[in-house]
Amino acid sequence: MTTPDLNNLVALLTVARERSFTKAATQLGVSQSSLSRTVTALESKLGMLLLTRTTRSVSTTEAGQRLLDSVAPKLQEIEAELLAVAELRDKPVGTVRISATDYAANQYVWPKIQSLLGEHPELHIELINDYGLVNIVAERYDIGVRLGDQLEKDMIAVRIAPDETLAVVGAPAYLKGRPAATKPSDLTAHNCINLRLPTKEVLMPWELSKGNENIEVKVSGQLVFNNAYQMRDAALKGFGLAYLPKALVEADVQAGRLSWVLADWFPTFTGHHAYYASRRQSSLAVRLVIAALRAD
Do 194 and 254 fall into the same domain? Predict the structure, then answer.
């Protein structure tokens, strides 16, 4: 015996509940004759009568009632779950998972999404700090935030920040008494604070540029972090030179806590973008977060 499909069971349940093929057909949006054939086919599959039909009413047989008592709660549970899933499309509910570096999260993401939580209490956000170039689909993220040069080609991307300049900085206490760095190769003689990139399992090279000249310098030192704010703190305390977003340390330089090093070699990269896999498959919650991120 073949197993009845879900639509046949829904048809039977609706007829039994309405006690009428006419009313059930209207509710299901099908013709009365089509609905009658569906129920008859189900009875044929099971080899037993499920409904007693008269010219004035419809009622369940003992077998039909037993079947409905068993499957009706399950069908209602499935219907409730389908409605809950539909809410992800129609209402900003559920969890939106975002992957971003600590700097991008603090500078461009968190300040823009805070208000959404108060406005939409059923919206939940996971903001995960990560310097790895993660596959957001495989890792089940809804949104990734990276510099424009780091975007995957098959993603939909929305710019959320201006171009980003990276800078080399050191504390006056560290620089005092040490030879000044006047060219990128001079960095190899300094104690440099490194950032580890988890995706490639290497230390991030310091990319520098001047005019048409672009150089990658592999530096070394006593400290390695995977957090820009710890790197900044170490630089402020005189542990060495750090390669950081200029916007992150500009106030420190203006206050005299840090100094620019090789200022004419600072590179500029395409600003941060929020990216996601598919506009068609995105929930309302994801679209709402994207809209907040791209707002000025």
Answer: yes
Helix axes 21-28, 32-46, angle to 10 degrees: 100
How many CA atoms are closer than 13 Å to the CA of 285, on its beta-carbon side? 22
- Phi-psi map region of 201: left, alpha, beta (phi>0 left; psi -120 to 50 alpha): left
Q: What is the chain's mean pLDDT, rounded?
A: 88
Q: Extract the tokens encoding 10.
A: 């829904």
Question: In the predicted model, is pLDDT for residue 208 greater than 80?
Answer: yes
Q: What is the pLDDT of residues 282-291, one digit of tens each?
A: 788 999 999 9
Q: Are 244 and 167 in contact (CB under 8 A)?
A: yes
pLDDT in tens, 119-136: 999 999 999 998 887 888
Residue 293 has pLDDT above 70, yes or no: yes
Domain count, the chain: 3
**C-alpha–C-alpha distance, residues 79 and 248, integer Å:** 50
- pTM recorded for the entire structure: 0.70
Task: Please tell me the distance from the alpha carbon of residue 24 to that of residue 59, in angstroms, as a whole number.
Answer: 13
- What's the token pair of residue 14? 């609706």
The encoded tokens of residue 55 equal 């010219």
Domain range for 249: 164-269
Per the CB < 8 A criterion, the answer to whether 245 and 251 are in contact is no
Please indicate, yes or no, whether residues 151 and 172 belong to a single structural domain of this protein.
no
